[in-house]
Amino acid sequence: MVKLPPDMLLRVTKPARYTGNEWNEIKKEHSGVKCLFALAMPDIYEVGMSNLGLKILYEILNRDSDIAAERVYAPWIDMEREMRDHNIPLYALESFEEISKFDFIGFTLQHEMSYTNVLNMLDLANIPVMSAERAEDAPFVVGGGPCVYNVEPLTDFFDLFLVGEGEEAILELSHAYIAWKEEGRPGGRRGFLLRAACIDGFYVPSLYEPHYDENGIFTHIEPLVEEAKPIVYKRIVKEFDKAAAADHPVVPYINIVHNRIMLELFRGCSRGCRFCQAGICYRPVRERKADTLRDEARHMIDSTGYDEMSLTSLSSADYSCLGNLVDDLMYDFRHEKVSFSLPSLRIDSFSVELAHKMQQIRKSGLTFAPEAGTQRLRDVINKGVTEEDLMTSVKAAFRQGWKQVKLYFMMGLPTETDEDVIGIAKLAEKVLDAYQEIHGKRGAKVTVSVSCFVPKPYTPFQWFGQVSMEEFERRQRLLKEHITDRSIRFNYHDAKTSTLEGVLARGDRRLNKLIYAAWKNGAKFDSWTDEFNEDAWRDAFAKTGIDPHDYNQRERGDDEAFPWEHTSPGVYRSFLEKERNKAREARLTHDCRRSTCTGCGICPTLEAHVIDWKVKNDCE
Amino acid sequence: MTVSDVNMSAEHQKYRAEVTKGAGLRFISHLDYAALFQRAICRAKLPAAYSEGFNPHMKMSFASALPLGVRSESEYMDFELKEPLQGIEVYKKLGTQLPPEVKIKRIAMIHGKHKALMAEMDMAEYEVILPYSGTADDVHDAITRFKHAGEALFHRVTPKKTRDIDAKKYVRSIEYHIEGDRLLLNLAIASGSTGSIKPGEVLNVLNEQFSLYIEPYQADICRTAIKSGGRPLIELV
Ligand code: SF4
Ligand code: SF4
């Protein structure tokens, strides 16, 4: 057990990040369990504590009397310095036990810019950063989360990965571990990894070897043993209505990023926006029943004392019984001070009405995501939204008394021209005009938030090259010049980190040494603008001889094999290719949720199907 | 967060609770400690009274903030319910919804008018435990010198401003005894609307200016009482 010097926490910011003891925290005697599982987020407490996936796994694992799951997050820079100065290893918040004493450390990989933090946390835990160097009794380091659809850049550091949803798989893994341990650890570390590779959804990278052609282009990956499946398909919970929810989430003392109950209405989204990886990777859509959700909401409020609840999903407004559900929830909690909110709004007046009903007034304003400035480009990305839809929505919002509207866009989308960029400014102006039309005077404030597009694996845009940093910056300047109205605020994302994300997102195994070198150079908290260490990365590229443009800017050939195709969400490559071709012609594809199947392949591959209560006529 | 004495409707009832803050929570800020009770009151389904207005908040107030890193056997919280429940019922319901590091010691219904806790208190008492290898005479000398000094200025630096505080103005009594290799100090510090000094600051003054050979950062400090006119606040209602 770790004991902190008494004054250490007085010298760091927000010491409550490091002391645990929160409400609903689960502490178990380690002598009474057979498997110790550390659930980790390679980011600070406030971010890690806001992650729904980790909350769910924490409860599922701890419900098993043989398993103790505990939490660990990245210490902020000041705490890390203190820990290194005083030889304090990374510890878990529940028991203060060293992470190196655990059986598993499971990292959720939410975005590429958190990779160096994984290495840093392993190092702080005194666990060898390289999986090949880990001793027999070292923890197994397992990765999960949205980045598992290309984990090749991380294969040196992880022992195994879980592709897809963890509710069932994480218990299967833990039980396999307990059995292996009780049998006397046959075959040692590798013996367990071979067993894990046989469980659906687990990918053990050391059992595969990649091959490249004479030009250094990836050609294929070779399974080295019988246990290594040629393709590891994602796990999903088919009957999502029956899946366990996080009914007793740990309630932090300090404010965190999402400091509220998260009620998960459904998994998956099939709107089919062509840039969106989540839209493919979480398919098919599976809803929970409204009654299940009402029960859960009651349990969660009772067990936490929260007074705020977010109806969370990839596109919550698509929930088939949303109107009824919101009415019912508001009725259920009419005597309590509980407020409800939607994390994102669909661009239609139904969503605005709903937001009004939920009184999302105190919030800074309403947020819409048209993603692109012109109709042509919105059609390219299959954002089935017209300018008229947006105008109807913002007018409805202005009528209901909102004055502030936030619009999200992406820059650098395939086929984008200067006209599309300028279209963003024009659209923002039209929103201002809409206010004038409604109220006869000016008074609206519009925030235009523009991120840089990063092509992601398993999207129709996975073949496209990413725009260069200079070009991103030119387009940002162009847009800035065209935003002249002072009622429009313009925020844009840093092109430096987006182009690096572009390298890592579609990387292969050769990037392991790049990430290692960057971390050795001091890179960490890469997603934190103030902490991003450009020199560390530039030097790492130079040292390893890796040309970033081979990964981010290079357009891939039609028949080129991708290094990520053996960890698969189950989508057909031919579907993605067809979508890419339709994108070039700006042709739309409909949502399969309440209409016909558009043939992405995920349902047949996984033997699953869409569960939508409206289709089943079960809204009432 | 203040409890207003006016506009209290007939059935509303105010309570005063003496509560603890265990070692595991000593790095939770005062505001977060207050929020912890709000959530606990929600979980306990107690009929909390809220302020009026656009952004209503629970009617609840605390005595002076506990310095970060200090635990407490005696914190105070006044709060208001919309129904006059018996103290014992509130005690039971709330008690089961508090984390193990927080205990309710006593709870009392407030009768008649009372000043806010902050205004009512005038003294806070602390127990300090320190590793110590010196002699009893050394401690005696240091404390005697402090008692006879004309002033004992402490230079307080905060992000906002820097100023000198005379520890003598606030320290009402210091008692000590030695147990093996530990030094125990009991401090009574005046604490009210005219400001105060933190127990850790007193230790620094004793160490730096009066040659008490301790390492203030190793101190385990616990607030043991908050009083007004020599009586614990819970006895005043
Ligand atoms: S609506 Fe589009 S962007 Fe949003 S999750 Fe669905 S596919 Fe992705
Ligand atoms: S297989 Fe068909 S129904 Fe299933 S998610 Fe894909 S497009 Fe939709």
Instruction: Tell me the structural class of chain A.
Output: alpha/beta
Q: What is the level-2 CATH architecture name of the largest domain in chain B?
A: 2-Layer Sandwich
Based on CA atoms alone, the radius of gyration of chain A comes out at 24 Å
Q: What is the tally of beta strands of chain B?
A: 11
Q: Major beta sheet of chain B, specifics? A: 9 strands, mixed
Number of helices of chain A: 20
Q: Biggest sheet of chain A, in brief?
A: 6 strands, mixed
Strand percentage of chain B, roughly?
25-35%
Shape of chain B: elongated
CATH homologous superfamily placement of the domain at 8-233 in chain A: Cobalamin-binding domain
Oligomer: heterodimer
> What would you call the shape of chain A?
globular
| Count of individual helical segments of chain B | 6
Biggest protein-protein interface? A-B, 25 and 28 residues
Indicate the CATH topology of the largest domain in chain B. Alpha-Beta Plaits
- What is the share of helical residues of chain B? 10-25%
Model description:
- The complex is a heterodimer of chains A (620) and B (237).
- Chain A is α/β, with parallel strands linked by helices.
- Chain A is 33% helix and 14% strand.
- Chain A contains 20 helices and 19 strands.
- In chain A, helix 12 packs parallel to helix 13 and helix 13 runs parallel beside helix 14.
- Chain A is globular.
- Chain A starts with 34 loop residues before the first strand and ends in a 14-residue tail after the last helix.
- The model of chain A has no long low-confidence stretch (mean pLDDT 95).
- Chain B has two domains: 118 residues, 2-Layer Sandwich (Alpha-Beta Plaits); 106 residues, 2-Layer Sandwich (Alpha-Beta Plaits).
- Helix content of chain B is 23%, strand content 32%.
- In chain B, strands 1, 2, 3, 4, 5, 8, 9, 10 and 11 form a nine-stranded mixed β-sheet that branches. In chain B, strands 6-7 form a two-stranded antiparallel ribbon.
- Chain B is elongated.
- Chains A and B meet through helix 8 of A and helix 1 of B.
- Bound molecules: iron/sulfur cluster (2 copies).
